[in-house]
Design goal:
The structure is a homodimer.
Chain A: H1 6-17, E1 25-26, H2 35-39, E2 48-49, H3 52-59, E3 63-66, H4 72-84, E4 88-91, H5 104-117, E5 120-123, H6 126-139, E6 144-155, H7 160-166, H8 173-182, H9 190-200, E7 205-216, E8 221-223, E9 228-230, E10 235-246, E11 251-259, E12 269-276, E13 279-283, H10 288-305, E14 309-310
Parallel strand pairs in A: 1-2, 3-4, 4-5, 5-14, 6-11
Antiparallel strand pairs in A: 6-12, 7-10, 8-9, 10-11, 12-13
Helix pairs in contact in A: 1-10, 4-5, 6-9, 6-10
Chain lengths: 333, 333
């Protein structure tokens, strides 16, 4: 376990329930503590350490589950350290869901090192199931596709004051526009997600763009995270609109909104397809933390069975429930 | 094209739009007519004939698209005739979505003949996309599954007076109960569908059962198909509830309702998963005729690429949009 925070702890528990043995754990603020104490899982005797390369070299795991960061630049060094010591790696790093377009050189380097050492690197999570596989499957019931448009949202209140400030909650429209002009924001998660949808569907990406639109309060709205009331007309958050154009014609769009929810609003995942025929898909129940962890765990046997290299979820077999123990699903590679 | 009715005509048009050449057509009531006249597709010069074996033997197609019937007993002879002359077959026969449990001997015979002649037999359609692949993908985001329950419906009004009478529209509850006790009904389509979900998810079927419940009118309801008003308390149709139990634990249920719709009701496809975590999935837009045809057409390259035998949709690669020409997606087999 490389990363033992909220996600790492849930994944560790699910993995042990599927018969996996945890042979090592690497953390940051919890170094020296027993993994059982930090994760709440009984029957693991591992103590959390600090140096991933040392732990992988000593424990020789089949798989490293990495839950430390979201972007290629923040995970690359750790991924390479694991791969070089013969460990497969599966991570939640959102960019790595499909990073051939956003970080082509680093992705190629990971791919080469993984192949050299006969192991794989894959990223999965909620995106894999709800924004890639369900959508690509829906597309498989269409004859012609003009556009596929997804709408997802998250509640600023769930992530504390820092993220609320990042979402510009409370800004005037003018302040928001000025911030947006000068903002050095990290890349959206929507872009690699749509790149994965394109790859899964045999579509060739020719252009990717992102637009950002503020969401304004239509009435005075209290923000718990910032302990303030956002007056009507001021910013509740914003929507990133990622658009990917393909050589074959279909346009893929994902609108991702992070804002202060008002009474009755909830996380959403809704997709519309325009083409022959028009289609749609919606999930009302979205326990994102658990679907993130369960999806990654269901990918584990497929990742261990895959040909070496950087293996995106666009190339894996269909996402499927893997009943029983992980070991029962392994084929000789 | 083996069958040139409503579905066969749409599929023929979609196939030609994907670069396929139609080399023969077999029908029943339209023998002797030009395929272009019956289907409305331009640029096909084929005339509809009556003997599938003769047409396959003469034209040597890569693939026969079969849209003639729903049950193994009604399609088996034609399927075998095609396979024996070296043609792959893809059909809409609902039972054959997964017929290893409902018709094991016939399925084994088809499997053996297909293997002997190096070709495949597969069934696809709306069920493949909406009742198998989307559902099995959703299951792939769960860690533990107690039950998966689908609810689908169709409107008796869409299928004329004969089917309305089959659905017992206008019966009293007593008449319905008496009919049900003595009814010799064909097997449900829900059962092979759930068998396909189980197979796709690595689950072992241990028991399959079907229950049938009447749907009663809560107010006087006019039935156009029968040109009569169904009084409150009498039957508007019924629900077949298929239940499949698996050795691994998950129970799969599909509730399929065919009834006279009242104002505001529409076809539905909604699935709920109980487990860790609870999940759901819904499609509001259901142009079933078009999704049936488009899904089958998207399966064509996968079926042509598959290893010989009876190949169910549980064994095929992920259902995906296949952009461009079918020929571009073919691998040497």
């Amino acid at each position: 376990m490389y990363g033992v925070g909220a996600m790492g702890s849930i994944i560790a528990r699910m993995l042990t329930e599927r018969g996996a043995e945890i042979v090592g754990a690497v953390g940051r603020s919890t170094i020296g503590k027993p993994l059982s104490e930090v994760t709440g899982i009984p029957n693991v005797t591992v103590t959390i350490e600090g140096d991933i390369e040392e732990v992988v070299q000593r424990t020789r795991p089949d798989l490293v589950v990495m839950t430390t960061a979201s972007y290629m630049e923040d995970v690359k060094e750790g991924v390479l350290a694991c791969l070089k010591h013969g460990a497969n790696v599966i991570s939640l790093a959102e960019e790595n869901l499909y990073s051939w377009h956003t970080s082509p050189e680093d992705t190629a380097e990971i791919d080469a090192v993984a192949k050299e050492h006969g192991v794989t690197y894959t990223c999965s999570g909620h995106q894999d199931g709800y924004w890639v596989q369900l959508v690509a499957t829906l597309m498989g019931t269409a004859h012609h596709i003009d556009e596929v448009r997804g709408r997802a949202s998250w509640n600023v209140e769930d992530f504390g004051p820092e993220l609320a400030r990042d979402q510009q909650v409370g800004d005037t429209l003018e302040e928001f526009a000025e911030w947006l002009r000068g903002a050095e924001r990290p890349p959206t998660f929507g872009r690699p997600t749509l790149h994965a949808v394109a790859a899964a569907s045999g579509l060739t990406v020719v252009e990717s763009s992102t637009a950002t639109e503020p969401v304004l309060a239509t009435e005075d709205t209290y923000c718990k995270a910032l302990e303030m009331t956002v007056p009507a007309g001021k910013v509740l958050g914003f929507t990133d609109i990622d658009t990917v154009r393909t050589a074959e014609g279909p346009v893929l769009v994902l609108e991702m909104t992070g804002k202060v929810y008002v009474e009755g609003q909830a996380d959403s995942n809704a997709w519309e397809l325009k083409g022959e025929p028009d289609l749609d898909l919606e999930n009302q129940v979205l326990p994102t933390h658990l679907t993130t962890c369960a999806t990654l765990v269901n990918r584990v046997p497929q990742v261990l069975n895959a040909e070496p290299g950087y293996v995106s979820v666009a190339e894996l077999p269909p996402l499927r429930f893997q009943p029983g123990n992980i070991a029962d699903h392994l084929t000789a590679r």
